[in-house]
Amino acid sequence: MDFATELARNILVLTVYFIVVALVFNRAFQSLDKLVKFEADATYLNKELSNYKLQDFLIVKFSFADKYELDELKRLSMSIENKSKDVFVEIDWKQCFISDFDKRIRRAIRVIPGKNEAASQSPSTILPGQTLKEEISDEKIGSPLFAPKNLQAAADKNDYFYLRLFLKISEANTKGRSCNLRCQFIAKNLSWQKALVLALQPK
Question: Which of 52, 121, 176, 202 has the smallest CB count inside 10 Å?
Answer without folding.
Answer: 202
